[in-house]
Amino acid sequence: MERMTLVAGIDSSTQSCKVVIRDAETGRLVRQGRASHPDGTEVHPDAWWAALQTAIDQAGGLDDVAAVSVAGQQHGMVVLDENGEVVRPALLWNDTRSAGAAADLIEDLGGGEAGRRAWVDAVGIVPVASFTLTKLRWLARTEPENAARVAAVCLPHDWLTWKLSGARGLDTLRTDRSDASGTLYWSPKTGQYRPDLLELGFGRPIATPEVLSPTGVAGHLPNGAPLGPGAGDNAAAALGAGALPGDVVISIGTSGTVFVASDVAPDDPSGTVAGFADTTGRFLPIVVTLNAARVLDAAVRLLGVDHEQLAKLALSAPAGAGGLVLIPYLEGERTPNRPRATGAIHGLTLRTSDPAHMARAAVEGMLCALADGLDALVRHGATANRVVLIGGGARSEAVRRIAPALFGLPVLVPPPGEYVADGAARQAAWVSLGGDAAPTWTAESPEVYEDAGVPLIREQYAAARDAVIDRPEG
To answer: Fewest C-beta atoms under 10 Å: which of 7, 75, 184, 382?
Structure first.
């Protein structure tokens, strides 16, 4: 019997680390492992490394794999000194303390519409607190002693790949297009770093990882297996879900993401649509919200139920929740750029003061925020024929059944899976097997949900959304 070629995909997300071992030719899952990450928006990378070791052990090790790729949460600021030691805990994508730095960077390039346009022309995105360069600006201004020690900056998946390779020199740091495109100092249009913008943000030059091609080799495991270039989590999820042209992928995880593969980079000076790159050499226009599945988690705590009960409650209430609207800005928000906003409830009456209406409002509020992102993609040229819904939030029956009415499109829900890790594994298979494209893996048939749109729900959400007041600074 011919021995199969195995590959490993790793997803180092905000909440946990997942490792999948798959057959490179067919994609068949052979084994897997998982370990949790600590909570918070500031985490020392050593915690990711420890979780990765645990997840690898649970997955039976990597000694028999032919290639590995690491996908990870985007934008996190990992700063290293000249010896490769971590200078301070990483600031993650959902840490909003650099909101002021983001505003300052826009001012540095002209301010207002002119400043936003300048950033889009330079790197395809407009500064918000999520992006790496804003965190570097915050570090330079707030922790000058730590900033003085910084010799290099990289991203979470870059650092883990580097650690797996056993390398120590800063000149051996490697990354990929998709993750580099979310830093504010690399342009997906030109495929080049913008050291002038990096110096503008941090105040002086520092080293950055080499950006590899889609099948570039970032290093090797001790057994000689190559390490692929890796990916940002959303780009990996697109590869793992096997999205077709016209498929808009909406992922409901810690954050909410709405993205579609494109041959054309978006041009959105408002900053709503970010012009990221994908894992194949194309572009990945994307809209990101800070609040997604955690909105459901908060509703579960508030109502004292579990997720299955929350879904049943939501489906027992009328569409539109009788006018009750929940604005889901529980951790501030990135889209729209409201880092100091809070969640809000509108339309509370005696008639809507019950668990069912509250559950429905939570689901609809979260989905309406994502529907706003879908609208923005379409306005900027994306083709949207159907939605592919993935992530932990997609496991909710209420989410699946309510989503088509708010998105206005058929919704396909693939079987639950680790799509980010699967995308990394598919990239590893591409590195191992070669060829002009990633191997085609046969997927299980998705569930399909369809429903007529309900404009009134979107309208009442928009009215409540625009009435939200931000917290004062400080």
So the answer is: 382
Residue 31: which H helix or E strand, with range?
strand 29-36
Please say if the pLDDT value at position 452 is more than 80. Answer: no
DSSP 163-194: HHHT---GGG-EEEHHHHTTSSSEETTTTEE-
Residues 6+ apart with CB under 8 A from 465: 327, 368, 372
- Intra-chain end-to-end CA distance of the chain, in Å: 66
Best CA proximity match to 135, nearest among 96, 108, 174: 96
Cα(380)–Cα(175) distance, integer angstroms: 28
75 is in an annotated binding site: yes
- Answer whether 282's CB lies under 8 Å from 266's CB: no
What is the spatial distance between Cα 186 and Cα 195, in angstroms, rounded to a whole number? 8
- How confident is the prediction for the chain on average, in pLDDT? 94
Q: What kind and span of H or E run contains 355? A: helix 355-379
Q: Say how far apart CA 246 and CA 235 lie, in whole Å.
A: 16
> What confidence score (pLDDT) does residue 278 get?
93
Q: Which of 176, 233, 247, 278 does the annotation list as catalytic?
A: 233
Give yes or no for a contact between 11 and 424, defined as CB atoms under 8 angstroms apart.
yes
Catalytic, 233? Answer: yes
Mean pLDDT to the nearest integer, 55-81: 97
Pairing of strands 226-227, 219-220: antiparallel
| Tens of pLDDT, residues 283-337 | 999 999 999 999 999 999 999 999 999 999 999 999 999 999 999 999 888 888 8
User: Is residue 220 part of an annotated ligand binding site?
Assistant: no
| Mean pLDDT of all residues in 47-66 | 98
**Cβ atoms of 288 and 256 closer than 8 Å:** yes
Phi, psi for 248 (deg, rounded to 5): -95, 120
CB 276 within 8 A of CB 264: no
How confident is the model over 464-472, as a mean pLDDT? Answer: 86
pTM higher than the cut 0.85: yes
